[in-house]
Write a structure and sequence with these properties.
The structure holds 4 protein chains of 4 kinds.
Chain A (H helix, E strand, L loop, with lengths): L18 H5 L4 H29 L10 H36 L8 H24 L12 H5 L4 H28 L12 H33 L12 H35 L6 H14 L15 H29 L8 H24 L1 H7 L3 H31 L5 H28 L13 H31 L58
Chain B lengths: L13 H34 L17 H28 L8 E8 L2 E5 L5 E3 L1 E5 L4 E7 L4 E5 L4 E5 L5 E5 L5 E7 L12 E6 L1 H10 L6 H11 L25 E3 L5 E3 L2 H9 L23 H13 L10
Parallel strand pairs in B: 1-5, 4-10
Antiparallel strand pairs in B: 1-2, 2-3, 5-8, 6-7, 6-9, 9-10, 11-12
Helix pairs in contact in B: 1-2, 4-6
Chain D lengths: L31 H36 L1 H7 L5 H26 L3 H31 L18 H37 L4 H30 L8
The chains are: A mainly alpha, B alpha+beta, C mainly alpha, D mainly alpha.
The structure holds heme-A (HEA) (2 copies), dinuclear copper ion and copper (II) ion (CU).
Amino acid sequence: MTEAIVPPEHHYLNDGYSARSWLLTTDHKRIAVLYLLTITFFFAVGGVAATIIRLELLTPAGDLVQSETYNKLFSIHGIIMVFFFLLPVIPSVLGNFLVPIMIGARDLAFPKLNLASWYVFWIGGLFTLWAVVVGGVDTGWTFYTPFSSVYTNTYVIATAAGVMIAGFSSIFTGLNFIVTIHKMRAPGLTWFRLPLFIWSMYATSVIMVLGTPVLAITLTLLALERLTHVGVFDPKIGGDPLLFQHLFWFYSHPAVYIMVLPAMGVVSELVTCFSRKKIFGYKAIAYSSMAIALFGFLVWGHHMFVSGQSVYAAVVFSMLSFLVALPSAVKVFNWTATLYKGSITFNTPLLYALGFIGLFTIGGLTGLFLATLAADVHLHDTYFVIAHFHYIMVGGTVMAYLGGLHFWWPKITGRMYPEVWARLSAIGIFIGFNLTFFPQYILGLQGMPRRYHVYPEEFQVLNVLSSAGASILAVAYAFPITYLLWSLKYGAIAPANPWNAVGLEWETTSPPPTHNFIEQPVVDHEAYNYAAPAQDSPQPIALESTAS
Amino acid sequence: MDNAFGLLPPAASADAARLDPLILFLICVSGFMSLLIAATIVAFAVRYRRQARVNRSINAQANHGWLEATFITVPALVMAVMFAWGTHLYLGAVQAPADALQINVLGKQWMWKFQHPQGQREINELHVPVDRAVRLKMISEDVIHDLYVPAFRVKHDVVPGRYSTLWFTPTRAGEYHLFCSQYCGSKHSEMVGRVVVMSQSDYAGWLAGKTSNLTPQESGKRLYAQYRCGSCHKTLPEIGTCPPLEGIYNQRVPLADGTTVIADEAYLRESIVRPQAKIVAGYGKEPMPPFEGVLTEEGILDLIAYIKSLSPNVEKAAP
Amino acid sequence: MSGHSTRPYFVVYALLMVLLALTVGAATQDFQAWNFPIAMLIATVKAGLILVIFMHLRESSALTWLFASAALVWLAIMLGLSLNDYLFRMG
Amino acid sequence: MTSPTSQASTSHTQSHSATGHLPPVAMQFDDALQQHDACRLGMWLFLSTELMLFGGLFLAYTIFRIAHADVFAEASQHVAPGWATVMTALLLTSSLTMALAVQAVRDGLHRRATVCLLLTMLLGGGFIGIKLHEYHSLYAEHLAPLFGWPFGYSGQQDASLAKMFFVLYFFMTGLHALHMVIGISLLCWIMVAMIRKRDARRWSTAAEMVGLYWHFVDLVWVFLFPLLYLIRPDKWF
Ligand code: HEA
Ligand code: HEA
Ligand code: CUA
Ligand SMILES: [Cu+2]
């Protein structure tokens, strides 16, 4: 165990250093790295906007920025964070890297399409960034008509085009994953031997493929209405503004599951690995992912409870919203049960995973408040909603992403990250996060509406708390960015399987060779077949492989 | 405890009194579940940390079907309670009582206009009597707004092109926030005002003291003359080329395509703005000109009030 | 892929033309409430023929059938739950 | 990059008769059959996304038609059902020639494939031609409410609601026509390969995919035709 770990001689990172070998690569692993850089950039852009928002909200008066600017800030924050960060983050970075490796394939089914998705993503991103630079957009991320199609004079068309184009990159990714998972699994890798991350990527892809086109056509209709002054949304010309909301949420509610399902997949991997135990309720978790993908399409109207949709529709949507919450509950309980009688080490990835479970639970349970009809009448469009979704999206998905990134960092880069720093940052993020967003629940219950640039004075104390939390959060986020970069040069060389984990990705070298495996792997066992932990004795933290 | 330990704004309406227990229930259930899960995780994490010497033997063959079933049924039952309770309250609040005080609300970028039945108009301020049901008939002149009174726990979108209603019964005198809670452009956060709940007698005094403008009905009558509606719509028994408007409110009107509709406010509005959309059976050879864009939303509200006044007996007789 | 005969294509083509004539014919008659269902039924049969023969679903795996029908199910969800609002709106 | 790694242990057997006609195998696939299956599956998924894309328009159409059934019935008198019948016939015929073309490519019959592809393109072109004619006459009748063009509707029904019909008409047929144009370009691409006598086997998968796409576009039209041209005043509720 003392023998020095040597990195493999040939791997995907040293297979060519030219710009061309990166920019025209069809290797899914390199594309994942390209996405990693891109998405971190967009996260920083969205984060800067969030920082200014929180600064502005320190005082009740609108003294830092003007109301027009404020509106542009939260719009661009929402648009960038949702469409250019959180939707693609896990599928395009971790998914791209891992899906082929986890199923023992040499690449995705359509590598060129995969590369195209990255370029398309950038084209969409540039449209949107261009709109921000030349004047911004102030519709909120929801683009409600007729404000967006008639009344605002900001850059709606460019932004909508950007979002729509980015949508196609997500369609490409989803399509690629579905075909790959169906057709390219290694010999012996049956459906119920797949890692749960693959199940969740599959479910996510279904939503991407069937939902995103509806967003595309909706935004096209919006842009056409703005451009040609005829259309189907503006009531002045006989249209129906609620139709826009139906179409928008038909995609955008399922889209929130695009944002959380991959995170659930990551957490399933992390929890089993660090409890060294087969996951509890494998099938329940797998099926619940598929159930979320399907039921997720049935509940969009819960965003429209007070919009004037029919009472009947409201009741049905409320009921279905509770239905879709059930599979999430199943997952939470199964993860918790997995810890039972495990042999747990508190490495950074597990800290993030546990953070995810806790914060997702709180975010999800407050989602139930909103699904409850009478309660939503009070809470709709208040800070309660803001807190609800930040708990799931930031507390949940971003945490899971960071956990996954740390977990697979050795595999991606061949280097270990510094464990102490990483644990400290994870704790810092957890504390900063709760301080930022918990007060917002109370603000919402007290009735502070969202998207408010100025607010009544009685809300100030909680807002100051929230802003204080946000500054802790911003600093805490800066840590991983820094030490992960540092580790590229100074981190310890990573062994093939630093966590002693099972799964095909740990059977190849770190980093993997260009075609992932030296020899085609063959699978003859179920996922997560960790050797039963020895009783009554402390487990040595060993580096020998348990997978046989 | 009428503000749930300060978590909620003061409860100043009948809806608030009904809703607050539900919200407390939700908070308790969520709090309990979150703590339970957090506690379980922490307990497992500590007890089964790698260094610990504990019994880790598990029966790999055990069938956990019952456990999985519990994972589904327990939350399902809890959620069923939430759903039933929330829906019950929601459905109970759909239909305003017939004797509610009717106030017209007009939302536009970025102000609220209110008009009382006796003609008093106010901007960004709404005076209402305590213990009396108030029904707001709301429409927007431009984008979607949303009228929200946290102390009453009510809100509803105010949509252009159609009427939406919101009603509540204030139970406590005082001043409360009134917010626009649907994002509507630059000054969304300044489209705010206050609701003043007064005792019945104060309200009467306030009404009297307020220089009363024309009532909606009166200004409706003026507009009716100004736009020469009467040149076609003759009064009974004289029947011209177009249908008489007396007594039609809330009655069934036969349409040219063979169906019928109830002449409610939405129908009257459509008949004025876009007459061709539903043609009354037997008329329409000399079509009525559309008044879309000619009349303001306020004017339309007034005209409807006037037309309703032509049907004095059917006001409450909704079929 | 199997059966390199092109005959089925011609048969289907003939059927499609007959159905086309049928739709146009039906449109000249008034079947009251049945106008729309009839038109849609014929269109669906046409679509079915195209899917099964021209697009080779007949020779395809169950998986392909599943993929071909998925979007239909999703479309039905979209229409169904939206109409749930539009058909029951009051006022 | 294109060396097929043979996998003794894979479950994919090469028993299929058509294997000899399939294109070379890309690096990531085990064998030609796997590759072909993957392409087909991918194409079907892509078609699902296309259907959902049109789905948004179908929803808009449905709710406005239900709300204003009479208006739609009257307004649709102004688009020409006669021409549309011809267009439908053209398109159905093109589906036949397309199917024949795919078969011909697969059988390596360059000449026959070329002819069939050409016919498909011509039929598709004819469709577009009539469509443009129709657009133009609507424009001339001031029934094209686009780009601020003059709009004047003379009918019993409300003009602004009738406008909604024409808006939907143009959006739906426009999106469809755009798909036709893309389809024709794809046909061109394959036809050029056939004319140059490129190894037809290399093209069989591509031709099959284009064929699926073409049939799908045809299929959408099969629904657009009765929805936009053959509306009778229907009373459902
Ligand atoms: C990743 C993102 C994500 C996820 C996963 C969810 C998940 C859920 N969301 Fe959320 N939601 C958003 C992102 C997300 N949401 C966003 C962005 C908005 C605002 C959009 C905007 O307007 O800008 C929003 C808004 C929103 C609304 C509209 C609010 C309004 O505007 O008025 C509603 C209403 O029903 C809702 C409900 C739910 C429900 C029921 C779930 C469920 O899926 C949650 C299920 C999870 C659990 C329930 C927790 C785990 C369960 C247990 C631990 C079991 C114990 C439970 C019991 C015993 C009951 N959400
Ligand atoms: C999808 C993901 C996502 C993420 C990750 C975030 C992250 C954050 N969000 Fe937001 N948010 C949304 C999605 C998201 N948000 C959406 C959809 C809306 C609704 C918009 C709408 O109404 O239309 C919204 C709205 C919203 C509001 C309400 C605005 C309003 O209604 O008026 C607020 C207010 O506090 C807020 C705050 C924050 C904060 C403090 C963070 C923090 O977590 C961000 C922290 C991140 C960084 C700070 C960047 C990373 C750090 C570095 C690169 C280090 C260096 C940088 C600095 C030191 C500045 N967000
Ligand atoms: Cu009006 Cu917001
Ligand atoms: Cu939702």
